[in-house]
Write a structure and sequence with these properties.
Length: about 230
């Protein structure tokens, strides 16, 4: 039986929706939608326009339906960035862009608490100011009220998955971009986070790549005119 997967591929400047079709012998790809991904600067902070991007996801779903439909949906995005969800399931603010300067100088500051050699032995990730751990440390330092209001952290593909299904989890490969995963145990490095004052309560359970997150929400199915599909 032929399988059709609708894949959303988000880069730092553009995104696209592609139908991958496997007929049991070969894979064919068809691009059905392409769109720009434009950061927005407000009050000195650079954000991702996440609602616009979700609009483009729904446009991709509609165009994929016209192109022959699909059996499931997959989402791939850039790493490190995230959205924060409050206790009522609402997004607290647009995700901040990794090019924002809020993390400048924080590698050295964090190293005073967790030495870089220990950090690297645990996480195995290149030291870059844009890494999630330094973004969270910047929030703790400059905007602690945001962290206090947050109930869950969702990386970009998991955030879009949440918007599509209503379910929250963290996929393993995106988690490893954060500099917060213990490479030996493949779980969150909560000991390091505790020492930095970053609340590990925000973190969802880590699931293997390719796990089923859920099915399309009923309201999205009604809006886009498609049957429920696995995400």
């Amino acid at each position: 039986m032929t399988k059709r997967v609708l894949a959303f591929d988000f880069g730092a400047s553009s995104g696209r929706a592609i139908i991958g079709c496997f007929d049991g012998d070969k894979i064919t790809l068809e691009e059905v939608h392409r769109f720009s991904n434009d950061p927005v600067s407000v009050g000195g902070t650079v954000y991702w326009d996440v609602l616009r991007l979700f609009y483009e996801i729904k446009q991709g779903i509609i165009k994929a339906k016209i192109a022959g439909g699909f059996d499931s949906i997959g989402i791939d995005t850039w790493g490190v960035d995230f959205g924060l969800i409050d206790e009522f399931g609402c997004l607290l603010e647009n995700p901040v862009h990794y090019r924002d300067e809020r993390t400048k100088g924080l590698i050295e500051e964090c190293a005073a608490t967790v030495p870089n050699d220990e950090f690297y032995r645990t996480t195995g990730i290149q030291f870059m100011e844009l890494n999630t751990v330094y973004q969270l440390y910047a929030l703790k330092k400059y905007r602690p009220h945001i962290l206090e209001r947050a109930d869950r952290l969702l990386f970009m593909p998991d955030l879009f998955g949440y918007m599509l299904t209503g379910n929250m989890t963290t996929e393993y490969s995106i988690a490893t971009t954060s500099q917060m995963v213990d490479i030996a145990t493949k779980t969150w490095a909560t000991g390091l986070l505790d020492r930095l004052g970053i609340p590990s309560r925000l973190l969802c359970d880590i699931k293997p790549s390719g796990s089923v997150l859920g099915t399309l929400r009923e309201d999205i199915c009604d809006e886009c005119g498609v049957p429920a599909a696995k995400v």
